[in-house]
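In response to the reviewer comment on reproducibility (Comment 2.3), we provide here a single inverse folding case reported in full, input and output, so that an independent group could reproduce the run without further information from us. The structure tokens appear first.
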């Protein structure tokens, strides 16, 4: 009878740890790691974010559960908790109750401790109760996903080691860090501190890149905060939202149904102001104010050039105002508020533009007015704009009267 061959067993174990079951090459391991992390990002952006947190689309039960199972394996996150924390972020954005605002907590804190901030808020029972309504609460959620949230992660570790051997631990580490670093850190942190803004939303959100590929489209964060319930995060022709491409594919396969997307302005022949015009202007108010902001920046540049040509010292003051005058007044700093009167006193054109911007915003801010009163307000605004003799206001009035009715495909 042969004795126990310890050396043979040790060799087998070492060979397994060295190569795993697949004996994959380096590039194959890298490809597997990138593919699995990409799937996790897609599951987060489509299922957790756009479907569960914002109800921008409905998923077929097969697709929804596939995403739930994958997230249980790769993140251990509970749907109700994630949706609740994210909804509270939107409801309390940049305020003291925002779970992960870099404005309140500092960019470094959100970048390095984003996961800790999420976990702390997810443990708040009141947050989950108030903001977690409508998230899955079925048998498998209660008995498996929420109850044994770490079991799936341990299974993923076992699978990685079984497939690739010891290097599978590194693969697992990358998989586990992908969401905390890119989502909890980069999107929630840098996405509220640096980047470009298509819209002057009331928070500090920014678009990190116009190509939303690495983080599934979440790079387009300013677009998302402007149109939070939109299933599509891209709004400009040059912006790419890969998450939206996957949603379109799922829709083609009958696995998804889009409920809402951000309205894209469509211009027609200018007409007199009527209820359809009012509806279109309110629906496209962020586009309206984005064009208004660009007009203000151009006006600052032109006024500064004109005053400098006249050797007027106010030229330098207005040139510096170009960096902030176009921003919504609620986001001006105390120093800027202290200087605005001086800036507007130096230019009647700028004063008129700033005043009429405030009056235009009243079209969608005055909830106490009837539709007829709002139509009259918009009519008067357009008449005054076109009679002002200021080219920027005339062009803005023409644009407002040219928005196609929303119900006609805009």
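Designed residues, in position order:
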């Amino acid at each position: 009878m042969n004795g126990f061959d310890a050396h043979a067993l040790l060799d087998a174990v070492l060979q397994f740890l060295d190569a795993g079951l697949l004996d994959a090459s380096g590039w194959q391991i890298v490809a597997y790691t990138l593919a699995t992390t990409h799937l996790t990002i897609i599951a987060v952006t489509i299922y957790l974010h756009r479907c569960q947190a914002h109800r921008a689309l409905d998923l077929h039960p097969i697709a929804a559960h596939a995403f739930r199972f994958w997230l249980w394996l790769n993140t251990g996150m509970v749907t109700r908790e994630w949706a609740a924390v994210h909804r509270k972020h939107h409801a309390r954005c940049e305020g003291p109750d925002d779970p992960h605002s870099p404005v309140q907590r500092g960019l470094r804190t959100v970048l390095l401790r984003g996961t800790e901030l999420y976990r702390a808020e997810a443990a708040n029972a009141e947050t989950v109760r108030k903001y977690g309504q409508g998230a899955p609460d079925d048998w498998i959620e209660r008995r498996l996903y929420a109850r044994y949230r770490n079991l799936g992660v341990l299974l993923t570790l076992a699978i990685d080691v079984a497939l690739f051997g010891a290097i599978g631990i590194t693969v697992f580490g990358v998989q586990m860090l992908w969401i905390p670093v890119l989502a909890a850190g980069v999107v929630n942190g840098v996405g509220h501190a640096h980047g470009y803004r298509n819209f002057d939303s009331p928070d500090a959100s920014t678009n990190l890149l116009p190509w939303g590929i690495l983080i599934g489209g979440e790079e387009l964060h300013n677009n998302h905060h402007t149109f939070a319930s939109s299933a599509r995060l891209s709004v400009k022709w040059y912006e790419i939202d890969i998450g939206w491409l996957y949603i379109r594919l799922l829709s083609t396969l009958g696995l998804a149904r889009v409920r809402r997307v951000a309205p894209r302005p469509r211009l027609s022949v200018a007409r007199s102001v009527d209820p359809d015009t009012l509806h279109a202007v309110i629906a496209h108010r962020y586009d309206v104010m984005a064009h208004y902001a660009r007009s203000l920046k151009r006006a600052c540049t032109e006024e500064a050039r004109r005053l400098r040509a006249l050797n007027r010292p106010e030229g330098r003051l207005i040139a510096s105002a170009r960096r902030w005058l176009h921003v919504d007044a609620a986001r001006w700093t105390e120093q800027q508020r202290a200087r605005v009167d001086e800036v507007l006193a130096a230019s009647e054109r700028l004063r008129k533009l700033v005043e009429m911007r405030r009056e235009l915003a009243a079209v969608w801010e005055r909830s106490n007015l009837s539709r007829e009163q709002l139509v009259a307000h918009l009519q008067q605004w357009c008449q005054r704009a076109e009679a002002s003799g200021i080219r920027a206001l005339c062009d803005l009035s023409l644009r407002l009267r040219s928005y196609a009715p929303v119900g006609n495909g805009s």
